[in-house]
Design a protein that fits this description.
The chain has six helices and eleven strands. The chain is of the alpha/beta class.
Protein backbone atom coordinates (compact mmCIF):
# COMPACT_ATOMS: atom_id res chain seq x y z
CA UNK A 1 0.00 0.00 0.00
CA UNK A 2 1.71 3.17 -1.24
CA UNK A 3 0.83 6.53 -2.83
CA UNK A 4 2.89 8.12 -5.58
CA UNK A 5 3.06 11.95 -5.56
CA UNK A 6 3.54 13.08 -9.15
CA UNK A 7 5.78 16.12 -9.67
CA UNK A 8 5.93 18.49 -12.64
CA UNK A 9 8.33 21.44 -13.13
CA UNK A 10 5.70 23.74 -11.58
CA UNK A 11 4.25 21.60 -8.78
CA UNK A 12 4.11 23.06 -5.31
CA UNK A 13 2.86 22.10 -1.84
CA UNK A 14 4.45 18.64 -2.08
CA UNK A 15 5.76 18.79 1.48
CA UNK A 16 2.22 19.37 2.75
CA UNK A 17 0.89 16.43 0.72
CA UNK A 18 3.67 14.20 2.02
CA UNK A 19 2.83 15.19 5.59
CA UNK A 20 -0.88 14.52 5.11
CA UNK A 21 -0.37 11.12 3.51
CA UNK A 22 2.50 9.79 5.60
CA UNK A 23 1.90 11.28 9.04
CA UNK A 24 -1.88 11.65 9.14
CA UNK A 25 -3.06 8.80 6.91
CA UNK A 26 -0.16 6.55 7.86
CA UNK A 27 0.41 5.51 4.22
CA UNK A 28 3.92 5.43 2.71
CA UNK A 29 4.48 7.72 -0.28
CA UNK A 30 7.12 8.38 -2.90
CA UNK A 31 7.85 11.06 -5.49
CA UNK A 32 7.28 10.28 -9.18
CA UNK A 33 8.46 12.51 -12.05
CA UNK A 34 5.59 13.23 -14.46
CA UNK A 35 7.29 11.79 -17.55
CA UNK A 36 7.70 8.35 -15.98
CA UNK A 37 5.18 5.68 -16.95
CA UNK A 38 2.62 4.81 -14.27
CA UNK A 39 4.37 2.86 -11.55
CA UNK A 40 2.58 -0.33 -10.60
CA UNK A 41 4.12 -0.41 -7.12
CA UNK A 42 1.83 2.49 -6.20
CA UNK A 43 -1.83 1.92 -5.35
CA UNK A 44 -2.63 5.56 -6.10
CA UNK A 45 -1.06 8.43 -8.04
CA UNK A 46 -1.77 12.00 -6.86
CA UNK A 47 -1.11 14.82 -9.35
CA UNK A 48 -0.60 17.85 -7.13
CA UNK A 49 -1.49 21.49 -7.63
CA UNK A 50 0.78 24.23 -8.89
CA UNK A 51 1.03 26.23 -12.11
CA UNK A 52 -0.59 24.69 -15.23
CA UNK A 53 1.76 23.92 -18.10
CA UNK A 54 1.68 22.08 -21.41
CA UNK A 55 2.97 18.51 -20.87
CA UNK A 56 3.58 17.86 -24.56
CA UNK A 57 7.04 16.41 -25.03
CA UNK A 58 8.31 14.89 -28.28
CA UNK A 59 7.08 11.30 -28.49
CA UNK A 60 6.23 11.06 -24.81
CA UNK A 61 2.65 12.32 -24.41
CA UNK A 62 1.01 9.31 -26.09
CA UNK A 63 3.20 6.95 -24.04
CA UNK A 64 2.25 8.72 -20.82
CA UNK A 65 -1.44 8.72 -21.73
CA UNK A 66 -1.42 4.99 -22.51
CA UNK A 67 0.52 4.17 -19.35
CA UNK A 68 -1.93 6.06 -17.13
CA UNK A 69 -4.96 4.48 -18.77
CA UNK A 70 -3.45 1.02 -18.38
CA UNK A 71 -2.63 1.81 -14.74
CA UNK A 72 -6.26 2.77 -14.02
CA UNK A 73 -7.54 -0.37 -15.75
CA UNK A 74 -5.34 -2.45 -13.43
CA UNK A 75 -7.12 -1.04 -10.36
CA UNK A 76 -4.77 1.91 -9.84
CA UNK A 77 -6.34 5.12 -8.52
CA UNK A 78 -5.51 8.55 -9.98
CA UNK A 79 -6.25 11.90 -8.30
CA UNK A 80 -5.67 15.32 -9.90
CA UNK A 81 -5.90 18.45 -7.72
CA UNK A 82 -5.91 21.94 -9.24
CA UNK A 83 -3.16 22.06 -11.86
CA UNK A 84 -2.94 18.27 -11.48
CA UNK A 85 -6.49 18.10 -12.83
CA UNK A 86 -5.44 20.28 -15.76
CA UNK A 87 -2.56 17.89 -16.46
CA UNK A 88 -4.92 14.90 -16.63
CA UNK A 89 -7.19 16.80 -19.02
CA UNK A 90 -4.28 17.77 -21.28
CA UNK A 91 -3.15 14.14 -21.34
CA UNK A 92 -6.65 13.06 -22.41
CA UNK A 93 -7.15 10.95 -19.28
CA UNK A 94 -10.36 12.87 -18.50
CA UNK A 95 -12.56 14.81 -20.98
CA UNK A 96 -12.46 18.59 -21.35
CA UNK A 97 -10.00 21.37 -20.54
CA UNK A 98 -9.37 24.13 -17.99
CA UNK A 99 -9.10 27.65 -19.40
CA UNK A 100 -8.60 31.08 -17.82
CA UNK A 101 -11.15 32.13 -15.22
CA UNK A 102 -14.02 34.13 -16.73
CA UNK A 103 -13.05 37.11 -14.56
CA UNK A 104 -9.46 37.03 -15.83
CA UNK A 105 -8.27 37.04 -12.22
CA UNK A 106 -6.72 34.50 -9.89
CA UNK A 107 -9.16 33.39 -7.19
CA UNK A 108 -8.21 32.18 -3.73
CA UNK A 109 -11.08 31.59 -1.30
CA UNK A 110 -13.35 29.05 0.36
CA UNK A 111 -16.03 27.70 -1.96
CA UNK A 112 -19.25 25.74 -1.42
CA UNK A 113 -19.86 22.70 -3.61
CA UNK A 114 -22.56 20.05 -3.89
CA UNK A 115 -21.51 16.41 -4.32
CA UNK A 116 -23.18 14.74 -7.31
CA UNK A 117 -21.32 11.41 -7.32
CA UNK A 118 -19.38 9.60 -4.58
CA UNK A 119 -18.08 6.48 -6.29
CA UNK A 120 -14.52 7.68 -6.84
CA UNK A 121 -11.33 8.29 -4.83
CA UNK A 122 -11.55 10.93 -2.12
CA UNK A 123 -15.33 11.25 -2.30
CA UNK A 124 -16.42 7.78 -1.19
CA UNK A 125 -17.32 9.00 2.34
CA UNK A 126 -19.28 12.04 1.14
CA UNK A 127 -23.08 12.18 0.87
CA UNK A 128 -24.58 12.81 -2.56
CA UNK A 129 -26.64 16.03 -2.87
CA UNK A 130 -25.04 17.42 0.29
CA UNK A 131 -23.02 20.64 0.45
CA UNK A 132 -19.37 20.87 1.50
CA UNK A 133 -16.76 23.62 1.55
CA UNK A 134 -13.22 23.55 0.15
CA UNK A 135 -10.45 26.01 -0.70
CA UNK A 136 -9.93 26.96 -4.35
CA UNK A 137 -6.84 28.72 -5.67
CA UNK A 138 -6.43 29.07 -9.42
CA UNK A 139 -6.29 31.41 -12.39
CA UNK A 140 -7.11 28.66 -14.91
CA UNK A 141 -10.01 26.74 -13.36
CA UNK A 142 -12.74 27.42 -15.91
CA UNK A 143 -13.82 23.89 -16.94
CA UNK A 144 -15.05 23.51 -20.51
CA UNK A 145 -16.04 20.10 -21.88
CA UNK A 146 -14.99 18.66 -25.22
CA UNK A 147 -18.11 16.55 -24.90
CA UNK A 148 -20.79 16.00 -22.28
CA UNK A 149 -18.94 14.63 -19.20
CA UNK A 150 -21.91 12.38 -18.59
CA UNK A 151 -20.84 10.35 -21.63
CA UNK A 152 -17.18 9.69 -20.83
CA UNK A 153 -16.85 10.97 -17.27
CA UNK A 154 -19.11 11.83 -14.38
CA UNK A 155 -19.64 15.13 -12.59
CA UNK A 156 -18.48 14.79 -8.97
CA UNK A 157 -18.68 18.36 -7.64
CA UNK A 158 -20.69 21.41 -8.68
CA UNK A 159 -20.10 24.92 -7.37
CA UNK A 160 -22.97 26.28 -5.26
CA UNK A 161 -23.78 28.99 -2.75
CA UNK A 162 -24.33 28.47 0.98
CA UNK A 163 -27.95 27.54 0.30
CA UNK A 164 -26.95 24.74 -2.12
CA UNK A 165 -28.21 26.76 -5.08
CA UNK A 166 -26.37 25.91 -8.30
CA UNK A 167 -26.46 28.68 -10.89
CA UNK A 168 -24.02 30.66 -13.01
CA UNK A 169 -23.37 33.32 -10.35
CA UNK A 170 -22.15 30.71 -7.84
CA UNK A 171 -19.27 29.59 -10.08
CA UNK A 172 -16.08 31.43 -9.12
CA UNK A 173 -14.38 30.71 -12.45
CA UNK A 174 -17.16 30.42 -15.05
CA UNK A 175 -17.01 26.64 -15.41
CA UNK A 176 -19.55 25.00 -17.69
CA UNK A 177 -22.54 23.74 -15.68
CA UNK A 178 -20.70 24.82 -12.50
CA UNK A 179 -18.46 21.75 -12.74
CA UNK A 180 -15.85 21.62 -9.96
CA UNK A 181 -14.70 18.04 -10.49
CA UNK A 182 -15.28 14.97 -12.66
CA UNK A 183 -14.34 11.31 -12.61
CA UNK A 184 -13.90 8.56 -15.16
CA UNK A 185 -16.66 6.11 -15.96
CA UNK A 186 -14.94 3.32 -14.03
CA UNK A 187 -14.59 5.57 -10.97
CA UNK A 188 -10.80 5.09 -10.73
CA UNK A 189 -9.79 8.62 -11.79
CA UNK A 190 -10.90 11.94 -10.31
CA UNK A 191 -9.90 15.48 -11.21
CA UNK A 192 -11.02 18.62 -9.40
CA UNK A 193 -10.25 22.33 -9.15
CA UNK A 194 -10.74 22.04 -5.37
CA UNK A 195 -7.65 22.03 -3.17
CA UNK A 196 -8.22 19.86 -0.08
CA UNK A 197 -4.45 19.89 0.49
CA UNK A 198 -4.70 23.62 1.25
CA UNK A 199 -7.57 23.10 3.69
CA UNK A 200 -6.41 20.00 5.57
CA UNK A 201 -4.71 21.91 8.40
CA UNK A 202 -7.30 24.68 8.68
CA UNK A 203 -8.78 24.71 12.18
CA UNK A 204 -12.03 26.16 10.89
CA UNK A 205 -13.66 25.08 7.62
CA UNK A 206 -11.15 22.28 7.14
CA UNK A 207 -13.56 19.40 7.81
CA UNK A 208 -14.35 18.69 4.15
CA UNK A 209 -10.66 18.68 3.20
CA UNK A 210 -9.82 16.22 5.98
CA UNK A 211 -12.75 14.01 4.97
CA UNK A 212 -11.44 13.95 1.37
CA UNK A 213 -8.10 12.49 2.42
CA UNK A 214 -9.69 10.15 4.95
CA UNK A 215 -11.91 8.79 2.16
CA UNK A 216 -8.90 8.42 -0.15
CA UNK A 217 -7.05 6.45 2.52
CA UNK A 218 -10.00 4.14 3.13
CA UNK A 219 -10.44 3.41 -0.58
CA UNK A 220 -6.76 2.49 -0.88
CA UNK A 221 -6.89 0.23 2.14
Amino acid sequence: MKIGLVCTPYTHNMDVLECIIQEHLGIPSGLVWYTEPARLEYDCLVFAGGIPFNPELPGSLARLQNALKEYALKDGLIVGLGAGFSFLLQCGILPGRLVENASGRHICRMQHVVVQSNGCPGVNLFTVKQMYEFPVSHAFGNYQPDQNPGKSGRVVFQYSDAGQNIHRRTSPDGSWNNVAGICSENGRIIGTQLRPDLGFFMEFKGESSRLFFKALGEMIR
